[in-house]
Write a sequence for this structure.
């Protein structure tokens, strides 16, 4: 198949629409549903991300994409009891590595992952399909599906769930093209390998990089390769916990990603984990309530007449002081940036979210001030010398 007709482009009025190959055949097969233009953008970017994560770490990988940027990305490390609970998979028993990767990718930022397009590095198994089945999602791309998994996914959305299989052996041409306003752009593909050598130039006084920190640096940088720029990514224990994408200011990327990372940790606070939700509340309503409860507008869900819709009893406020004390426990977080930090304010914000390891290109006229700020907090920072803009 050389081309596939689509219902419409980015918006319903943008017709006609299709994906096609100028040379050869499409490396994808639609097994269920009717994926759209944005679905394919998410699917193909997501597939590249998880393929690289698998190659870099040797573990199955998953990502949860929304509007051509990842909301989450992770490798298949086992879940702790706490993570299983805050990701709402504690009723699933022991998960396969691929299912664990998706639980992490979907669970880190559930607000952003709502209605995601999923990419999986390995053949989708039953465990992973069962997790996908109960989430609000647009579709999934993987190199294959077990018979059980495919049966489960084909039944989702009354048979309209988008399931795409991609040929894992497919390699695109080294030169890529993009048309904007009738003008064709051409560039070499971004095929920079994210490896140990890229992380070898440590510029801070503290040069102690653990194996886990090196792994998390790779995860951050690979995630950034497929995130709309400017972008910053916080990673902890093999998964992205906060991604700030598409901001014009670098520090706004850091603040956005840092806030998401903070929310991830606050969801593990006992007050949050023990919120008395009413029986039968929808998953999305529960996620929304948690997001409001841990934020500054908490009275929107705790006011009289509001809490009764969600909780069996009125929860206590999680005070600003309690939140700060809880966040101060965070440590060992890794931060990646797709371009250099122009000011040390990014480092100050990163410190508030427990960042200890940083990977960024370097090259700012204020590199000395950024390094000095890292040294103040005993951080380890590597200059990669490589920018990772993605548009």
């Amino acid at each position: 198949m050389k081309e596939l007709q689509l219902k419409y482009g980015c918006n319903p009025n943008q017709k006609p629409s299709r994906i096609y190959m100028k040379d050869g055949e499409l490396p994808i097969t639609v097994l269920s549903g009717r994926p759209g233009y944005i679905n394919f953008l998410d699917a193909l970017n997501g597939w590249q991300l998880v393929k690289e994560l698998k190659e870099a770490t040797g573990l199955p990988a998953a990502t949860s994409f929304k509007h051509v940027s990842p909301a989450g990305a992770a490798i298949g490390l086992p879940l702790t009891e706490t993570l299983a609970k805050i990701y709402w998979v504690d009723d699933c028993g022991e998960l396969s590595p691929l299912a664990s990767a998706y639980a992490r990718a979907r669970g880190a930022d559930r607000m952003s992952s709502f209605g995601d397009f999923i990419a999986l590095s390995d053949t989708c198994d039953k465990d992973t399909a069962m997790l996908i089945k109960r989430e609000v999602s647009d579709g999934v791309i993987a190199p294959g599906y077990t018979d059980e998994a495919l049966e489960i996914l084909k039944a989702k959305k009354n048979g309209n769930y988008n399931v795409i299989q991609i040929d894992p052996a497919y390699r695109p041409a080294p030169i890529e093209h993009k048309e904007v306003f009738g003008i064709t752009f051409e560039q070499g593909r971004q095929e920079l390998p994210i490896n140990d050598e890229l992380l070898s130039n440590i510029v801070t006084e503290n040069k102690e990089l653990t194996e886990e920190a090196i792994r998390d640096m790779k995860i951050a940088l690979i995630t950034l390769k497929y995130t709309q720029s400017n972008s910053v990514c916080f990673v902890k224990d093999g998964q992205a916990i906060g991604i700030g994408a598409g901001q014009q200011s670098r520090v706004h990327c850091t603040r956005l990603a840092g806030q998401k990372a903070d929310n991830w940790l606050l969801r593990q606070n006992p007050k949050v984990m023990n919120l008395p939700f009413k029986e039968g509340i929808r998953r999305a309503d529960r996620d929304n309530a948690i997001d409001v409860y841990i934020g500054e507008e908490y009275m929107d869900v705790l006011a009289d007449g509001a809490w009764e819709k969600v909780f069996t009893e009125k929860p206590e406020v999680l005070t600003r002081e309690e939140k700060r004390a809880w966040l101060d426990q965070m440590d060992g977080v890794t931060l990646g940036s797709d371009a250099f930090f122009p000011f040390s304010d990014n480092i100050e914000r990163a410190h508030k979210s427990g960042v200890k390891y940083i990977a960024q290109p370097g090259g700012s006229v204020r590199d000395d001030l950024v390094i000095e700020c890292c040294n103040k907090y005993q951080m380890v920072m590597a200059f990669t010398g490589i920018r990772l803009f993605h548009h």
The mean pLDDT is 96. The longest strand covers residues 69-75.
